[in-house]
C-alpha cells in the first residue's frame, strides 16, 4: 500500500512506509533549517539518520546526528530537532501513531 506524503511543518515531508498496530515505520525528509517542533507522545520512538545532519533536543540534552547515527526516544520525553543539512530520518514508533494515518 502506498501512503501519501504529508507536510506537517514548513520544509518537512513525512510518509508512512509501513504500519501495523504494534509498529510503524516513517520517512521524514527535511530541508536545511526546517524544524521538528518540540513535542512528546506516549510512543517509544527510534530515529535513524539516513542522510543529512540534525541537532536533536531530547529532554534537557542535545545530540547531533549524521548519516548512520540513531537515537532512542523514550515514551513521554519532550523532543524535537533542527535540520542542519538537508536529509532524511527514518522513524519507528511502537505502538503505531494512529494520528499519522
TrEMBL record:
Residues 28-81 form the Cupin type-2 domain. InterPro entries: Bacilysin_H2HPP_isomerase (IPR052535), Cupin_2 (IPR013096), KdgF (IPR025499), RmlC-like_jellyroll (IPR014710), RmlC_Cupin_sf (IPR011051). Gene3D superfamilies: Jelly Rolls. It comes from the Bacteria. This is Pectin degradation protein. It comes from Thioclava atlantica.
Amino acid at each position: 500500500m502506498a501512503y501519501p506524503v504529508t507536510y506537517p511543518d514548513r520544509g518537512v515531508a513525512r510518509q508512512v512506509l509501513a504500519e501495523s498496530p504494534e509498529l510503524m515505520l516513517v520517512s521524514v525528509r527535511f530541508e536545511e533549517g526546517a524544524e521538528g517542533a518540540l513535542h512528546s507522545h506516549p510512543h517509544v520512538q527510534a530515529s535513524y539518520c539516513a542522510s543529512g545532519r540534525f541537532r536533536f533536543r531530547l529532554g534537557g540534552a542535545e545530540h547531533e546526528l549524521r548519516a548512520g547515527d540513531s537515537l532512542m526516544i523514550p515514551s513521554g520525553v519532550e523532543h524535537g530537532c533542527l535540520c542542519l543539512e538537508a536529509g532524511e530520518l527514518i522513524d519507528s514508533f511502537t505502538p503505531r501513531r494512529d494520528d499519522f494515518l
